[in-house]
Write a structure and sequence with these properties.
InterPro entries: Ac_CoA_lig, ACAS_N, AMP-bd_C, AMP-bd_C_sf, AMP-binding_CS, AMP-dep_synth/lig_dom, ANL_N_sf. It is built from 19 helices and 29 strands. The protein is of the alpha/beta class. The protein has 2 domains: about 475 residues, Rossmann fold; about 130 residues, 2-Layer Sandwich (GMP Synthetase, Chain A, domain 3). The N terminus is likely disordered. Bound molecules: 5'-O-[(S)-ethoxy(hydroxy)phosphoryl]adenosine.
Length: about 650
């Protein structure tokens, strides 16, 4: 990655920059001096952030790195995470503030205040204790975006049990693997969930998953779809209990116990490049400190004033850190929405923003590009003037989507924070600070105060400005993973062996510095192509394709090529207005030339296939592996993690008929 082709230099022709407005900067939670202060004494800086929380016992040491790569932050300190997210706000007189404006997909709503949340979490904590859950036990949660999901997570935290949230769309096999790996004692789920206007069963899948699962003693079932679902909810007598029967009967008082700062908080499974999913382990004090701090500065969140909305699902790390822990620790008022963005219509998000006067909106590039595809006339029908900060997470955001987001949703003035981080990092690591950073479309820019990231070459040497390489984190951070559940060796191997000599954490992402030293993420290193010895990121080519007005979405893979090593194969969805001549050679030729023009002739795709859909995981990531299978004429591999497995048939059918 050290040698960037000169032809790729014009990726850096993206030179637009948007300084913060004076008014925003004047009122921002932090100013430019924050970086220097953090640099001066990182440990003292993080200690100061940890003081944002309420501790029962102070720590004796900010960072104990003697057992590296297993960190201990705020060693000796004790706190209760749920108390910090709920009770202390009530004690401070904010019991009547709405914590959650919940919006159900069918249109039902619930507003939950901090006082109510405290009662709900206390009851749920008592309920878990009543079925035998003790500190250190694992509770698996497979729930859609209902308030009970958040209550259940906080109830676990309150009693020191670990939650392992499993995305609602995961198959029974996937759920079972996670339940077994962590020997979950209790599973919390629902009878069914609303998806695109229909009630779909959930409990039936959970039962299928749990057949013969020895560790599971209780299954607690939230009633959500009720009679909307056909047939009775399958029930295992003695094991299953309704949430409302168990939880509602509990007292609303529960005294939170303080746990060690390093007490495990949760496990969250994430897929690696190969093999079975890894249970990423996070602990209490450091995780909550960084989740809360980053939510405070990256979104410039003002408690009691802002209305915040993170559109993630609690099945992913973004839902953990930026719906549950960070925001609630900061006394947020937030929207939680149960459904899909186009149910019952494509303006649903904008309607919600208008209704609740959402001021901070945090979403993913894939959704932004979908909104672009649906058209700017849809958001134009709503009053979005309450928005003042827009965020992006999950994948590199191409400059076109970034600009569209800013112009169309952010009235051409809202700062955009492109936040880079991972399940493993626990919280945001690289991001602009609104009010401080002059933002650049497509760049996450700079490690946050107190965080250190570098772009290095194969040998671990930092590359100069303008150079590209691997992203590493060269200093421990409070919310870093504390291991892979039950597999210390995998933890060391995956993250710490690549640059063992230097002790760097290997993120698995390619990145480059621009000439200002700002960081641009280029996608996973496994997605980097090598064409005739030139390294080209799939992201770069995608970005070029998407910058063509006819292109709605594009995914690029490197397919093995006898002459050039790899050849670039692009899968492209055309915009509605252009689909009539979608199969036309003209469109394909024009796009190839366009890429050549944007990046250089070496980046010209060998092949461009016009397709109706792209295969995506449930978290919205394009599954390039499957596209590589098509590009290399292989039998298509495992499609079980696709959000919609019929997409591959659709693509293949289109290609076979020459469309
Ligand atoms: C990618 C999601 C570019 C990256 C929080 C990382 C990004 C992986 C960005 C982690 C971003 C996330 N720009 N790439 N702003 N944010 N990524 O664990 O490849 O689901 O390694 O965590 O997503 O995905 P995960």
């Amino acid at each position: 990655m050290t040698e960037q082709s000169p032809a790729l230099d014009n990726l850096l022709t993206e030179s637009r920059s948007f300084p913060p407005g004076a008014e925003f900067a004047g009122a921002a939670n932090v100013g430019p001096d924050v970086y220097g202060a953090a640099e001066e004494d990182r440990e003292e800086f993080w200690a100061e952030q940890a003081r944002r929380l309420s501790w029962d016992t102070g720590w004796s040491r900010v960072l104990d790195w003697s057992g590296a790569p297993f960190a201990k932050w705020f060693a000796g300190g004790r706190l209760n995470v749920a108390y910090n997210c709920v009770d202390r706000h009530v004690e401070a007189g904010f019991g009547d503030q709405v914590a959650i404006h919940w919006v159900g997909e069918p249109g039902d709503t619930r507003d939950i205040t901090y006082a109510q949340l405290k009662d709900d979490v206390s009851r749920a904590a008592n309920a878990l204790v009543s079925v035998g859950v003790v500190a250190g036990d694992v509770v698996a949660i497979q729930l859609q975006m209902v308030p009970e999901a958040i209550v259940a997570m906080l109830a676990c935290a309150r009693i020191g049990a670990l939650h392992s949230v499993v995305f609602g769309g995961f198959s029974p096999t996937a759920l079972r693997a996670r339940v077994d790996d962590a020997a979950a004692k209790v599973v919390i789920t629902s009878d069914g969930q609303y998806r695109r206007g229909k009630a779909a069963p959930m409990k039936a899948n959970v039962d299928e998953a749990l057949a013969g699962a020895e560790s599971v003693e209780k299954v607690i079932v939230v009633r959500r779809t009720g009679d909307a679902l056909e047939g009775a909810t399958p029930w295992v007598a003695g094991r299953d209990v309704w949430w409302h029967d168990l939880v509602d009967a509990q007292p609303a008082e529960h005294r939170p116990e303080a746990f060690d700062s390093e007490h495990p908080l949760f496990i969250l499974y994430t897929s690696g490049t190969t093999g079975r999913p890894k249970g990423i382990l996070h602990t209490s004090g450091g995780y909550l400190t960084q989740a809360a701090y980053t939510h405070h500065v990256v979104f410039d969140h003002k408690p009691g004033v802002d209305v915040y909305w993170c559109t993630a699902d609690i099945g992913w790390i973004t839902g953990h850190s930026y719906i549950v822990y960070g925001p609630l620790a900061n006394r947020v008022t937030q929207v939680v929405y149960e459904g899909t963005p186009n149910t019952p219509h494509e303006g649903r998000h904008w309607e919600i923003i208008q209704k609740y006067k959402v001021s901070i909106y945090y979403t993913a590039p894939t959704l932004i590009r979908t909104f672009m595809k649906w058209g700017a006339d849809i958001p134009a029908k709503y009053d979005l003037s309450s928005l003042r900060v827009l965020g992006s997470v999950g994948e590199p955001i191409n400059p076109e989507a970034w600009i569209w987001y800013r112009d169309t949703i952010g009235a051409s003035k809202t700062p955009i924070v492109d936040t880079w981080w991972q399940t493993e990092t626990g919280a945001i690591m690289i991001s602009p600070l609104p009010g401080v950073t002059a933002t650049k479309p497509g760049s996450a820019q700079r490690a946050l105060p107190g965080i250190s990231a570098k772009v290095v070459d194969d040998t671990g040497t930092e590359v100069p400005p303008g150079g590209g390489g691997y992203l590493v984190l060269d200093k421990p951070w409070p919310s870093m993973l504390r291991g892979v559940w039950g597999d210390d060796e995998r933890f060391r191997d995956t993250y710490w062996s690549r640059f063992a000599e230097q002790g760097f954490y290997f993120a698995g992402d390619g990145a480059k510095y621009d000439t200002d030293g700002d960081i641009w993420l280029l996608g996973r290193v496994d997605d980097v192509m090598n064409v005739s010895g030139h390294r080209i990121s799939t992201t770069e080519v995608e970005s070029a394709l998407v910058s063509h007005p006819a292109v709605a979405e594009a995914a690029v893979v490197g397919a093995s090529d006898p002459t050039t090593g790899q050849g670039i194969v692009a899968f492209v969805i055309l915009r509605a207005a252009h689909t009539t001549d979608s199969g036309g050679e003209d469109a394909v030729q024009e796009l190839r030339n366009h890429v050549a023009k944007e990046i250089g002739p070496i980046a010209k795709p060998r092949q461009i296939l016009i397709v109706p859909e792209l295969p995506k995981t449930r978290s919205g990531k394009i599954m390039r592996r499957l596209l590589r299978d098509i590009a290399e004429n292989r039998t298509i591999g495992d499609v079980t993690t696709l959000a919609d497995s019929s997409v591959m048939d659709l693509i293949s059918a289109g290609l076979n008929t020459g469309k």
